[in-house]
Design a protein that fits this description.
- By secondary structure, this protein is of the alpha+beta class.
- The chain has a domain of 79 residues.
- The protein has a three-stranded antiparallel beta sheet.
- It is extended and about 60 Å long.
- It starts with a helix and ends in a 51-residue tail after the last helix.
């Protein structure tokens, strides 16, 4: 029951009921990426959208699909022999605001305020 209400009201978890209905009625599946995200376009080919497999994170869209969803390319070439270089890393989510956020030249314990409050 709770997941049903989440589908109706909570848009940041995954697709809402409205998106699911619109996708069912007007969407045509174009393909999926390595993260499991599904890419759709309507039958007039004027709108494109993505339904994320898990948590919504726009940085999970690969560059080929990013170009397709922004109408830069109209065709996706599925290249299974795409060469990965040793300097390329797998996707990592945006960790800003978490304890694992990147802080140059400092450890998390060393980060302090650079000001003092005048009210006490």
């Amino acid at each position: 029951m709770l997941t049903f209400f989440k589908k109706i009201f909570v848009w940041w978890n995954q697709e809402t009921l409205g998106t699911k209905l619109y996708t069912f009625l007007f969407g045509k599946l174009v393909g999926k990426d390595e993260f499991g995200n599904s890419y759709y376009e309507n039958k007039k080919k004027s709108k494109r959208w993505v339904i994320y497999k898990s948590e919504i994170d726009a940085s999970k869209i690969p560059s080929d699909w990013f170009s397709w969803i922004h109408f830069t390319k109209n065709k996706i070439e599925f290249n299974t022999n795409q060469k990965k270089y040793e300097w390329q890393k797998p996707h990592s989510p945006n960790l800003t605001g978490t304890s694992k956020a990147y802080h140059p030249n400092k450890k998390n314990e060393q980060i302090k305020k650079k000001y003092t409050s005048w009210k006490k």
